[in-house]
Amino acid sequence: MLLILLLGLIGLLECEIIPRFDMRDKDGIIFDPIVPRAGESMTAKCTVVQLTPGNRKSVSWRLQRQNDGKIFYLATNNDVFQFKNPIQRLWAYHELNSQDWFLHFNPLDRDDIGNLTCYLADTGEEEVSLTRYLDVHSEPIILESSTKDVEVDIGESFNLDCKAQGYPRPNISWIRADSKPLQGGIAKFNGQTLMLRNISMYDRGVYKCIATNLIGSGSEWTLKVSVRFPPFVKCQESVGQAPNFEVDAYMECYAHGYPAPRLSWYKEVDPNNPTALIPLTEKTFKYKFEATIPEPDVCTDCILARITVINVISGDYGTYVLRATSEQATSKMSEGRVRLYQTPECQQSITNPDNKGCRSPPKLN
């Protein structure tokens, strides 16, 4: 079945039969199929009536795309000017003395949506033409101009924009990839623009934009929202180990911050003066430092920092300090403390895997 759209133009010629486009079927441009889809073929037909045997006319085609507004002069009679490289996908047909002109797309592109016009090419200044809107039905795609990964400060506001193409017009929705609720406690937001207001650390994470229409669904866009915040440190309270058993003890802290802070370890030298600290280094072979990124379900934008005290002796007891300093502003700094205390028995559970285990100290003669 063919669908026809109405639009008519008639030019005036003195005392002559005026050629015009056939509008008996409402519009003059006939599409086959009626509802063309991207990737499929389609033929458009224009018919000119009131042509006398000696009054030959040329018909041209042009397309004004909706997405970018560009105008393409496609063909005149049998000559095609566009969409020939790298592979031809457009053909024009007209038989001599025929009233019908054909334009064949194979395949249609999703960008072909727009105003398709056939017009008499040799009528002088006044154009005789017909235009029909070419609806190219296509699955939605999300455009690269959508919001990409962003970094914001705590307390700022920001809009996440998702731009999609497709016909019928896509429905756009936002969710969080980790299934946590969006701001306001909702699971999903319907709309092109997701507004984040007074951003907090809770708002950081991966957001997902989904575009769907009647033709299909599955076009997704993900982006990461990173929230800049000053560092803070959380440490375990204390760790116990016996001295002189040739075993180690390790202590752990979580350093939070974005961007990732710079970490350094210290040891208190005076219990009565928490600011009296000495920096620790691995060069003495007494300490081993490790820093790893935990799984996301443990924490986000954090570092698991571990210090291992090798072959614990009585002089190792005391308070150890992890200092986290912002790479952007050295004035933004946080400290966490963990105490290593003496136990009467060797604690095998916290020894380093490289140790031989809890061994009794050598007996004195």
Account of the 3D structure:
With 365 residues, this protein is mainly beta. It has three domains: 3-136, Immunoglobulin-like (Sandwich); 140-229, Sandwich (Immunoglobulin-like), CATH 2.60.40.10; 236-350, Immunoglobulins (Immunoglobulin-like). The protein has strands at residues 3-5, 20-21, 29-32, 42-49, 59-65, 71-76, 79-80, 90-93, 100-105, 114-120, 129-134, 138-142, 150-153, 158-161, 164-167, 171-176, 189-190, 193-196, 205-212, 217-235, 238-241, 249-258, 262-268, 277-279, 287-292, 302-309, 318-325, 333-342. The strands form six sheets. Strands 13, 16, 17, 19, 20, 22, 25 and 26 form an eight-stranded mixed β-sheet that branches. Strands 1, 2, 3, 4, 8 and 9 form a six-stranded antiparallel β-sheet that branches. A hairpin with a 7-residue loop joins strand 27 and strand 28 (333-342). The termini are far apart. 28% of the residues are buried. Residues 344-354 have a biased composition (Polar residues). Pfam families: I-set. It comes from Brachionus calyciflorus.
